[in-house]
Specification:
The chain has 200 residues and is an alpha+beta fold. The chain has one domain: Pnp Oxidase, Chain A (Roll). It starts with a strand and ends with a helix.
């Protein structure tokens, strides 16, 4: 049976932080719009900010659906599955916000991710999620799988980009500045990474 939690702490927080993979789900307000579901990994790119707030780093990629949906309506669900150990699934339903490089909160938020260098990955935003409903359910149908290591392909791919070439890359992609459904996506041109981030 599922259980509802008031806070992200204790065993629940430990479970979330131990998972190498989680999923995000968002959707536009338009009932005919496209639901988006994305896997998120890369060790060190997720953080629990406080008992009601989590955040993850949004890196360069071919789409910006999550950003577009959050800019329109803020609804988001995060999900973690236990692929090892006792079967468990945790969902955090809440309101999310993309915080961009030129936001005054940028440096403070980035300090929650000391284990990852944002530069090689073309960091675009920090996604901050405020939990409104926290639940776990059984994961009886989730298979056992082992985690070996992160792929190094993302870092290798985007390490050769600077802000100018990232802008050019994003401009060529159909669903970066606007979503599949035509919603505003990633604001371009991309603000430069603050000097403090470049020095880390």
């Amino acid at each position: 049976m599922g259980k509802t939690y008031e806070h992200i702490d204790g065993r629940l927080r430990a479970f979330i932080e131990a998972q190498p993979l989680f999923f995000t789900a968002t959707a536009p307000l338009d009932g005919e719009g496209t639901v988006n579901l994305s896997p998120k990994g890369l060790k060190g790119s997720f953080a629990v900010i406080d008992e009601q707030t989590v955040a993850y780093l949004d890196f360069a990629g071919s789409n910006a659906e999550t950003i577009a949906h959050l800019r329109e309506n803020g609804r988001i669900t995060l999900m973690w599955c236990a692929f090892q150990g006792p079967p468990d699934i945790v969902r955090v339903h809440g309101r999310g916000e993309p915080v961009f490089r030129d936001d005054e909160r940028w440096a403070e938020l980035l300090a929650h991710f000391p284990g990852i260098d944002p530069v090689p990955h073309g960091l675009r935003a920090v996604i901050v999620v405020r939990a409104e409903l926290i639940r776990d359910t059984c994961g009886y149908g989730v298979p056992f799988m082992t985690y070996d290591e992160d792929r190094d392909l993302h870092g290798k791919r985007f390490a050769r980009e600077d802000d100018a070439s990232l802008d050019a890359y994003f401009a060529k992609k159909e669903h970066i500045a606007t979503s599949i459904d035509g919603l505003p996506g990633l604001p371009l041109p991309l603000p430069p990474l603050p000097s403090a981030a470049l020095a880390e």
